[in-house]
Amino acid sequence: MELPFAESWKIKMIEPIHRSTREQREQWLKEAHYNVFQLRADQVYIDLLTDSGTGAMSDRQWSELMLGDESYAGATSFYKFQAMVRKIFGFEYVIPTHQGRAAENVLFSYLVKEGNVIPGNAHFDTTKGHIESRHAFAVDVTIDEAKNTQLELPFKGNVSLEKLEKVLVENKGNVPFMVLTVTNNTVGGQPVSMQNIKDTCRLCHKYNVPVVVDSARFAENAYFIKTREAGYADKTIKEIVREMYAEADAATMSCKKDAIVNMGGFIATNNKQWYDGAMQFCIPFEGYITYGGLNGRDLNAIAQGLDENTEFDMLNTRIHQVAHLAAKLDEYGIPYQRPAGGHAIFVDGDKVLDRVPKEEFPAQRLTCELYLEAGIRACEIGYILADRDPVTHQNRFGGLDLVRLCIPRRVYTDNHMDVVAAAMKNVYDRREEVNHGVAIEWEAPLMRHFTVRLKML
Ligand SMILES: *Cc1c(COP(=O)(O)O)cnc(C)c1O
């Protein structure tokens, strides 16, 4: 008999979690203004809000904490971190920051000017925020097929070269860089192919536009290249990663994702001028350039995390769990962004609650229903997250309205995934009874989804 699949690790430490009653959850959600970000974590049974900073560190990462060098400048921890970033990504200059958005803040403070146009394959919300807050424009150039949630494509996160070229031609001299996000989070954790990465870099370079790779899930992207793209099956993840970055100009990284630490980020580049420019913003925002808002011990844990999460078995265990949840949802007929992405399943909110008008934010309503059903915290990646158009101030209903079931790395078992799927099925089975969504009572002008206050309709 062929042996079944099993995780490539065993568990050394556990953390208890607790169920609650529906009555309790109704009260708690009301107090949270129907925004699950405002729940207390101990009011949640299974927390799929995000995979950011919520992973379980390995025994080796915990040991690295003890070796942290907390010297203000020139700590050995910095050099260990810098050496690993250089080895994995092939970039010479490395600036640590306290998380991914801080890397954006530091680099964009140097690069982005008012009125600039910055194309990208669906900018992440903080990336968009850092562009728009500087009165520049983030233009989405993802392939159109990404919007069709039922289409099975191996690399649905790809850049449309046609759309990209149009932006580059129409805005000559006004595009400081292009943002290539791997994997493409906003359209469903979908990977970008090696071919598309190379074509994108070459097209940008033809117009003298540099490429900044938003790298949060670079290792998962490399896993999909290895398992889906012709010619890569026999390459190691580390070899694939080096090839992904070979023609790119810089990386911004949220280490809270694929470096499997609770906090951290960095900028990496071979461009000395960018390094010198960005460095000047690192010091006032993040701190001296060899710690960038991080403890020495954190830098050590990042180095170790980058090394172990660019090994095939670690990634295979993770992607297998995402696929396990996807298979359960298939069994129950629940529509989600196909194929399953690297870090999450994105359930199609407005297809599940198809009686709720888009002006009432169906995916947000579904997020609330899932919490009420079983204490599972998911996250709306839809019309609320999309914010308002900076010029017209209208809600942006042009994209997808998804509920993200985001899976922390090495934290939950497949049994937890089965509970999530069953809860989603129960909501799905009573979808005919949900005719209304939610309404906004208060919202922030940018990145409103974190703090928005809602009421149930
Ligand atoms: C998480 C993330 C960021 C921002 O990183 P933080 O560490 O949360 O500040 C930027 N881009 C992408 C694609 C991300 O997933």
TrEMBL record:
CDD domains: Tnase_like. Keywords: Lyase, Pyridoxal phosphate. GO terms for molecular function: carbon-carbon lyase activity. InterPro entries: ArAA_b-elim_lyase/Thr_aldolase, Beta-eliminating_lyase, PyrdxlP-dep_Trfase, PyrdxlP-dep_Trfase_major, PyrdxlP-dep_Trfase_small. The modification N6-(pyridoxal phosphate)lysine is found at residue 257. Residues 47-422 form the Aromatic amino acid beta-eliminating lyase/threonine aldolase domain. Its cofactor is pyridoxal 5'-phosphate. GO terms for biological process: aromatic amino acid metabolic process. Belongs to the beta-eliminating lyase family. NCBIfam families: PRK13238.1 (NF009709). This is Tryptophanase. The lineage of its organism: Bacteria, Pseudomonadati, Bacteroidota, Bacteroidia, Bacteroidales.
